[in-house]
Amino acid sequence: MQFDFDTIYDRRNTGSLKYDLAPKYGLPEDVLPMWVADMDFRSPECVVEAIIERARHGIFGYSEAPRGYFEALEKWYKERHGWQIQPSWLVKASGVVYALAQAVRALTEEGDAVLIQEPVYYPFRQVVEQNGRRPVVSGLVYDNGAYRVDFDDFERKIRENDVRLFILCSPHNPVGRVWTREELERMGDICLKYDVLVASDEIHADFVYPGYKHTVFAAVKPEFEQNSVILTAPTKTFNLAGLHISNIFIPNPVLREKYQKETAKSGMSQLGIMGMVACKAAYEGGGAWLDALMEYLTGNLAFMRDFLRARLPELKLVEPEGTYLVWVDFRALGMSAEELERFIKHEARLWLDGGTMFGAAGAGFQRFNIACPRAVLQEAMERLEKAVRSRT
Asked: Is a pLDDT exceeding 90 seen at residue 392?
C-alpha cells in the first residue's frame, strides 16, 4: 500500500494548538511550528472512515467502547510489543497526562516525594507540584552525546527522600532513549527494594527506530506488573490527540481500585464515542500505515542528521532511539537560555520547545518535532542555517 506523507496540509484556522496560537504568544506570523507533539500527517484512512460511518448514525448519546475494542488493543500489544494484557486491567481515560495526575493523587499522599528524571516531559513536574507532592530529580547523565541513568544517584535519591512513586518516561521524551530491558530491570528492582510504585508513560512506544526495541515495563518481571501503572494511548501513534482517548493498564487490583476511586472523585465516567471509535479502528487497521510512517520518519531523521553534520556542525543532534522528537544541543553558540529562545523564535523564525521547559538540565538544548513533510523539515533547517550564519 502507498501512503502519502509528503503533502503539506494547511492546518491554520482549524483550532490547532500548534498552528493558530503564534499571535497569542507574540511570535512572528510566518513562524514555522515544530513544537507540540502532534504530527502534520493525516490519520490513517481507516480511522477517518470509521469516524464518518459513526457520525452518519446521528445519535451521540452516552457511550461505552464499541464491541471488539479490547480485542483490538490485545492484539496490538501482543503482536507489536510481546505483552499479553487482560480485560480487567484496562481503565480508559481522556488522556495520559490526565491519567498520570489521577495516579499521583491515588497512589501518594500530599507531601510525598515523587521521582522524575530530568530533562523530561514537563507535565511530569507539573502534575507532581500541582497536586501538592514533592518532585525529586535524579537527572539523566549526558555523556558522549547520549543519555544514561545514574543508578547510584537514582537509588540514593529514593532512599534519602523516602520516594513513594517513580514516573518513568519510556521511550524518553525529550532525549529519545529507548530503555533496554536491563536498564528497566535495574530501575524496577531498586523501586521494589524501597517499596516505590512506578507510573510508566509509554505513549511513544510505537515510535522506535531500527536496531532498538521497546519493552513494556510491566512485562519485564511479574513483580513489576504488580507494582506499576502503564499509561498508553493511540493518540501519538495515529495523530489522534484532539480525540482524547488513552488506555491505562493496572494489573494490581488494589492499585486499580485506588485509581478508579480517584477518577470517580473527578466526575469522569464515560468518554467521547469518537475517540473510542478512532482507537479501535486505528489498532485494527492502522498497522501498515504506521510501518510506512516509521520508514518516512527514519528518512526525516537521516535528512536532519546529515544537514546538521554538513552545514551546521556546531549544533549536535542527540541521536534518538525512539519518538519523533529530536533533542539538539545548541550550547556551542554560547547563548543564555533567554537569548537562545529569542534567536530561535525571532531570528530563525522557528517555534520549538526550549530545553529549560524540561528542567534546568535542558538549558542550551531545543526539541524539534520532525513528524512533518520532508519539505517542511528542509525549510526549518534552512531557516536555522541562515540565522546561525548571520551571527558568524
From this structure: no
